[in-house]
Here is the input.
Amino acid sequence: MRALLAEREKIQFTPVYVNTHSNTYRHVAIGLEAAGGGIRQTLTEEPEALRETLRVLLETPGVPAHPLSAHPRVPDAVRQAVAHAFMRMADDAQGQLMLKNVQMAAPTLADYARDYQMLERYGLDKYVVRAKP
Here is the structure.
C-alpha cells in the first residue's frame, strides 16, 4: 500500500504503525489519523457501526496472500515437498481447519512471474520496515 501510494499515486505521507488492522480502523474512526490501510477480510470482521464510519478510498491490485518463501540455499526438493504438503492439507478436514486457523484456507501453488513479478515496478525494498529488537 505504501509503495502504491508513493510510486503510482505520488502521495507523500508519514506512516504511523498501530500494530493491527483493527487499531488502524479505530484510529481513523476517532480522528487520530486521516486514513489507514488494512485488508478487506479484517474490515468485514469489524462491527457494522465501525465499518459505517469508514470509507474505502483505494484498493490495491490483488496478489495471492501469505506466500511461503524459502531461502535459496534450501534444496528445491525440500521446497517442493513443503509446498505439496500444504496442498495435501487442503484435501482433508483436519488440514483444512489448521489452514483456516492461519488464514490460508485455500492454498495455491504460486508462480513468481504470474503472481508477484508485477510488484517489482514499485521498488518494494525501500518500504521494508525492520522490527526493532
